[in-house]
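SEVERITY: medium
COMPONENT: batch folding queue
REPORTER: lab tech (J.R.)

DESCRIPTION
The queue accepted two submissions in a row. Attaching both inputs and their returned structure tokens so the on-call engineer can compare them side by side.

ATTACHMENT 1
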Amino acid sequence: MHRLRRFALVGIMAVALTGCSVSIGTTPTATPEPRPTATPRPTATPRPTATPLPTAEPTARPEPTIAPTMPSGTGGSTGGMLALVTIDRLDTFKHPAGLFSIDVPADWRRQESSNEATLVYAWTDANENALIVLSITETQEAPTQDDLAEQATEFVNIFKDEKDFSMDPPEKLRGGGVQIIWSYASDASGGVEARLLANTFSYRDVDKVSLLTFVIPEEQFDDLKPSLDAILRSYIVDPAIPLSGDASVRRFAFDFTNDEDKWATDVSTSLRAVIEDGVYRITLSDPDLYYLTAPDVSPADDLEVSADVLIQGNSRAGVAVRYGTGSPSTTRNYYTCWIDGGNQYGCFVSVNDRWTTLREPISNPAIKPGTVNRVSLKAQGNRIIFSVNGVEVQTFTDTRITRGQAALYLENFSTEAGAEFDNVIVTLLR
């Protein structure tokens, strides 16, 4: 079944897996008030001598199982006996840099293909009548389950011109992924025509998006299903590992499932900072306050922090770099850029708690109002770069602060305003 393997590899490489398209925003309906002048709450205390902690232990894929479809054509094979697909034993395959691991049939042949944006691995049985394909890419946006469904559908539709093609609607999985069941007919080894049953899964792990596809002869599906389910459950991604495998950077990934000991939490009269429902939720109850919080990761000269941000109420939220103590030690130094609930952003630098605006509030179509946006702030040398949903919206040069930690930033203008943060990546550059 050489045609099947070629179509799968070429198809995955053709699918753009860099996230959803950027929507055009509208001007906010309310003009943000001037920068707060009230005395701010104390910020989370930075820990400049802390040793970087490991990321949360990756967990195997939950819940979903390989499932049959309802093909539009006839099932089974025609023209002769279809060679059996065998899975006698599963061995664990580990990516050389530790990006992912997956259990695969021990005697299946592996092929690899990649470019700067995508890693692709494919495993085929001895007769090339069955296929497992895994594609991984990094995203600078914040894809939703709808976005994952759209990407998976785009991949499956590469095969829509195959004989007797059939595709069920995408199913959203409880764990946050998407599953599509589909099938078509093709020529297998020995000149036998067989109906192929496929399951495609799309997942997001912080800034990694995976497409995992199983293609099996339909008539052999029931016998192979237990092994296929075991393969699916075994797939683990470590989002702290860069796709490039660049050893010159150190990355720390936080998806707020088991990060309680790495971030400050607090519940008081004016502040609620809690990790719940898989997000880091911060709310300021009194108006005109701001708040910074840093993970337990060492400071650095050059670093980058990115996060999913969902604005709640009349607030501004974003990320900060080179965050640390000033002089006197009760003050703070940092660069920060934020977005609001509309489509505006701004940037400033704080030196000993004296704020200097670097970018007055301005709208940008890269910001998606009313939904999750992925923001990133990078400090490298004297350059500070702010990006939203993968679009570089602001670059400036400044030398006032040279070292510090990554942090999350929030300020509000009215009672009960805040933001949700998720999928935080801290990168220490060398």
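ATTACHMENT 2
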Amino acid sequence: MEEVVGWVNAKRKLGGIIFIELIPRSSLKPLTVVVKRDNSGLWEVAKKLKLGSAIRVKGEKVSGGISKRGEEFKPSEIVEVACPSESIPVDPLLKAGVTLDTLIRYRYLMLRNPKVRAVFKIRALLLKYAREYLESEGFLEVNTPKLCGAGAEGGAEVFELDYFGRKAYLAQSPQLYKQMLMAGLPKVYEITPYFRAEKHHTTRHLNESWGIDAEMGFIRGVDDVMRLLEGLISYILGELSKKAKEELNALGVEVEPPVIPFKRVTYDEVLKLLKEEGLVLRWGEDLTHEAERKLGEIMKEKGYELYFIINYPWEAKPFYIMKEGRLSKSFDLDYKGLEIASGGQREHRFNELIKNMREKGLNVEDFGFYLEAFKYGMPPHGGFGLGVERLLMSLLNLSNVREAILFPRDIQRLIP
């Protein structure tokens, strides 16, 4: 005897048989509970069940049954544990078209759909494999404050709030704190939310997103950081390709572990490639979305889905990145034409760091708590921030980053 629980996603009556379809627990495979008229007790219960009812069923699975959708289940008991007080507002089976706004509004209901459920099962596995890899490399998971006295980027795109009469900000990233930790812990990582007060209306931006941040001390150069990141991505994709086959198949996605090292292309080479395609950018500016997309097309033709952009102009990077003349020891990692990560070697020398801050027009006094850590033997260090939703978006070929997070926060959404 086996017990399954779930929600009634579909119900149909064919002569003397009622077919009840549900997806049990966290499975993707529908289970079809078959009730025959000759079992009068179960028949009366089955007749009264509504779409969306939560039920508990005892019985046994049937091999080679009459159901054509999913595995068949022969019940001996059906208990309705919750009956919907209103008609379900969306069809979890998506027989009719549903807008993205509706999908997001009723995300909790749409998780009864196998494809939607598959996205978030993959998301959970992605984070699991990220932890596995980083911990196998000797990294310690940490948790840094999300209420801060200064923005990590030093810009204006922060959410400001009142903190007992003082100005405070929601953390843009754990950047400042994970660097400070390099004075005592040489390998740390954090899976963390980012808060950015950017008024974007795009398919790739959120105001609250999640990232996998890592920082490592005693590096010999920025290549150490890139090797860590490409190892992490390769491990995640490799594990998903082996252990998330059901979820990937449900979404029609094929994943292969990428070959490492990833292709490196310099910023100057990028500008040249784009110019050849008629897209001209000013030297020193960051890549626009159009430029990223076009570069993705160019790199795909060359056989590269994942590639680093290196040797960025320092003027396009934040103050904590180490300068190298007019350039910086930094990189972006793009995946299918979308930036999914950025990082580099940090400036660990106290006096040079102050020069960087002043060159960026920052008030050094605002960052006193951060600078203090650089006085006591701060080693050369570097790290990266990898966007969880953007990685999922590229990996699963999603059309909108909002499909990769349960309850999106953007310029229009503060609920649900």
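NOTES FROM REPORTER
The mean pLDDT is 93.
No errors were logged for either attachment.
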